[in-house]
Specification:
Elements: E1 3-8, H1 15-29, E2 33-38, E3 53-56, H2 65-81, E4 86-89, H3 92-101, E5 109-113, H4 123-131, E6 135-138, H5 141-145, H6 149-152, E7 155-157, E8 177-181, H7 190-203, E9 208-212, H8 218-227, E10 234-238, H9 243-247, E11 252-255, H10 264-271, E12 276-279, H11 285-289, E13 297-299, H12 304-316, H13 318-328, H14 331-334, H15 337-354
Parallel strand pairs: 1-2, 1-4, 2-3, 4-5, 5-6, 6-7, 8-9, 8-11, 9-10, 11-12, 12-13
EC number: 2.4.-.-
Protein name: Glycosyltransferase
Domain Glycosyltransferase subfamily 4-like N-terminal: 14-163
Amino acid sequence: MMKVTFLIPSMAGGGAERVISELANEFVKEKIDTTILMTAGDECVYTLDSRVRLVSVGGISGGSMRKRLKRLADMRRYFRKNRDNILIVFEPDAAFFAAVAKTGLSMKMISSERNDPGSFGKQKTRKFAYRHSDRIVFQTGDAKAYFPVNVQKKGLVIPNPVSVPDIPVYNGERENTVVCVGRLEEQKNHRMLLKAFQIFSQQYPEYTLHMYGKGTLEKELKLLSKKLDIDSKVIWEGFCSNIAERIQRAGMYVLSSDYEGISNSLLEAMAIGLPVIATDCPCGGCRLCIENEKNGLLVPVGDDKAMAEAMGRIAAEPEKADSMGKTASKIAERFSIRHISGEWIALIKAFCVEE
């Protein structure tokens, strides 16, 4: 039987965590023994098949050197007992510690680059982790091309799957709402979105902005919305696990990131037929999903005026918006979990053949 261990700091919510939960559920359906090993917590907010094992070895992302070494030892102890497992790692720091912890063991390791490597730092961490990885999975060709040839030779491109909710594409009149889904962190550039919404709301005062997600910038962003005098129109929704049902009737979905891999929330919004607007950011994930003017709108990174103009177009041209949304829903076929998990399983099987 094939055996796989996913390594991730936690399963407390996030794009990579959702992908792991969905892949794990698909793997066990194919009779792949599957474990999720968490290094910074024991909470999981996603529904897992009962055959998926959850194991926690504490946290390696913080604490004293003594605590880090202990947790590293705990990881190595797990790896030694499960060295016949194929290790799949979804985060640079975790990949670094995994590479250290498995030193001298014959455990195969697949690292997965989840973001724009040029914008995310941690280059020494990546270099070490990828040197000790057997294969590296990238979400886009642009991300793969960023690295030197020796890394590219180990790499292949497998995009994120889209989780298609069991709800039909909404065909009724849409609400006067703008929705944004993502962690409240620097990468997502919500400051730009708030400024764009202020410009947009001057012409369309009936709209409200709904922010789904939590993060370290929440307090700062709330203060900015007050400074921009739009705080009465901005609703902070927090984390939500059934996001598709909540945003199904929204007027539009917006993504304002400075850099992004393939955004899970963008794929989900497209799959349920929402008109979408996204920044054309590195490393090409949004461009891979959106064909400008056909299934959504792309705007330059950091350009609040262009974002506001695109939002105005969606609000002013409901027929065009509806057409783009219906075309966007076809993305569900291209990025289905069955198709994407099949590519991962083929990679895992290739390892087994090599052995």
